[in-house]
Design brief:
By secondary structure, this protein is α/β, with parallel strands linked by helices. The protein has five helices and four strands. Helix 1 links the parallel strand 1 and strand 2 (34-42).
């Protein structure tokens, strides 16, 4: 199951069924099984506080992904997305907000599928995967 929650954001994911089917398809193509994923839409201030408390990082970010399953178990996770940061990123990148939102959604899903982005090599692979799956939406 895929859930979309608003924490302190009023933004509503449009075409939830289409987006959920796309996410399930991506997970399936990665050879994984989904248990449940919660996308939690929030503000910059909320994600900054979460970043401080959970990860001891004192900066804004567009997404924080918490993997809740053990290795080789069906995917279960909580993904927090700052709608404020996604909007700012879209403006900076000169792309539509919805395109950036979809990129951030799939970025979190890819983390749950085991992809990392700490090194340049990992980041490059993550971007390739994001672009690949975005073209399937």
């Amino acid at each position: 199951m895929i859930y979309y929650n608003n924490i302190d954001s009023k933004y509503i994911i449009k075409e939830k069924r289409k987006v959920s089917n796309w996410i399930k398809s991506c997970i399936n193509e990665e050879g994984k099984i989904i248990d449940n994923i919660s996308f939690n839409l929030c503000s910059d201030e909320y994600i900054l506080q979460l970043n401080n408390e959970a990860l001891q990082h004192d900066y804004y970010t567009d997404i924080i992904t918490f993997e809740l399953n053990e290795k080789d178990e069906p995917i279960e996770g909580d993904i927090y997305i700052s709608i404020d940061r996604v909007k700012d990123n879209a403006i900076t990148l000169h792309i539509p907000f919805i395109n950036e939102l979809h990129r951030v959604l799939i970025h979190g899903v890819l983390h749950l599928c085991g992809y990392k982005d700490k090194s340049k090599k990992e980041e490059l692979l993550m971007r390739e995967k994001e672009n690949y799956y975005l073209n399937k939406l």
